[in-house]
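User: I'll paste a sequence; please echo it back and then give the predicted structure.

Assistant: Echoing your sequence first, then the prediction.
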Amino acid sequence: MTNDPGIESDFEQSLSTNLSNLRLSSTLSSPLQPTEEINHDMESGENDWEDVALGSYKSDPKEELELLLEELKPLIQSYLENGTNEEAPVVEYHSPKELMEILGYDFHDKGVGINGILNIIRDVLKYSVNTWNPRFLYKLYAATNPIGVVSELLLGLINNNSHTFTASPSLTVIEIKVAKQLAQLFGFSNGSGVTCPGGAASNILSLITARNFIFPQIKEVGITNEKPVIFTSSASHFSISMVASIAGLGSQAVRLVSCDEKGRMIPCELERLIQASLEARENPFYICATAGTTVMGAFDPLNEIGRIAKKYKLWLHVDGCWGGSLIFSKRHQYHLKGSHMADSLSINPHKLLGVPIQCSFLLLKDEHVLKSANSTRADYLYHGEDYDLGSGTLGCGRKADALKMFLAWKYYGSEGFEYRVDKALANAHYLASLIRTHPKFHLVTDQPTMNVCFWFLPKSIPASKFNLFKNGYNEYLTKVTRRIQFEMMKEGKFLIDYASQGSNTPEFFRVVLNSPMVQKRHLKELVDEIERFGNEFYGKV
């Protein structure tokens, strides 16, 4: 890796070393035959391992897993090498229709056995997006790390359901410990939390918990004449509006608060809407502030919003799924100032911290509120054990995602997370500086935090005369952005995204800086590539 002054650290060297360690040499075993027809003697109850072909439900699982892992080593090695190969594509692009034909395997009575399944695994790897590639700048996550791969393997091996303590004793204790430790970072001294299957699910559980806590009668009789109202910014995640429908409140119960030019909620607008709701004899009860919006990466002013929530006695939730991880950075955690005033907060370690997807926590200031608000009588499953985490959630089957955060935190330490966060923001600021000084580009907001959003300006729109609100720019710049992004995706060298911020703004490129493997040279190359495609399709200056 190239050394960037002030950014590189021992952590990155450790990461490189660990990646190398994963690239294990492998001696391929002799070819294994596909599963042969087996005579099942279901009555005997005996497992005659030696007489059964591998790849059947009667084969020896220890021997079979050992062989599968041995055969997987060179596939893992090749995949990682492609991820760090400067010439390898991020993705080998095919249309959905083409992939359905390539990967449209039929199912048969007989299994394909080990050789057959390895061929399928090769195809899956070949046609998947390689997030280990530093030119993957597409979404709010990137590759995991060696300990992340190990943690997923460990969870599959254990295969415990973390709904009850009895079914998952060690993983339950780990989840409680990690959640409490995270909660304390945000100022929840007596807080707790649980993992949820993604950030949207964490936000949904937050709102359902708040509804049940503030309107406990709704659990039994449903919504009658309460008229509950939710407030969130116009730039917030779609899950907030979605949960309004799930919770029976209806989308009309969601009041969108205007944002400033940087995509942050405007507190005085929030208070105006709360007062209007009270005057309409509604029941305002929930505010969702965002720490790191999906598109712009903006941070709502939590201190001011917290004071408003306290004034009107509303539940305050902070959606920190993207930006909450800044809490690990002494340099950047000021963005989260005021988070201690929240009643709940969601954070996704599978984004900025590199923990494997999925790993999301809902953290609560009150450690007892989840069970008191959400538990139902399910005595056949929950037998009164205080450590049965599933009783406070909306599901039953629970993967113990906390183990992935636990192992990563123990492996890299808080300093390792801090390095990753600082590197990501340093890269974002560097890319923004390249865009800011380039005559063919224009930043959507001049001081981005984590997401860098910008337009490429074609020949017909010189930078000196750029006017965002000029008639015709909206549709034309959207067309330019989409065309360049699609052509770059087909080529496979870079994978970036585009987005919009309101109906009056043309769609723009959104580049997410996340992986510590991204170097300055990759960002310079990205700018050059966008300009190359732009000039090819829309003319040189």
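The chain has a mean pLDDT of 86. The chain has 15 helices and twelve strands.
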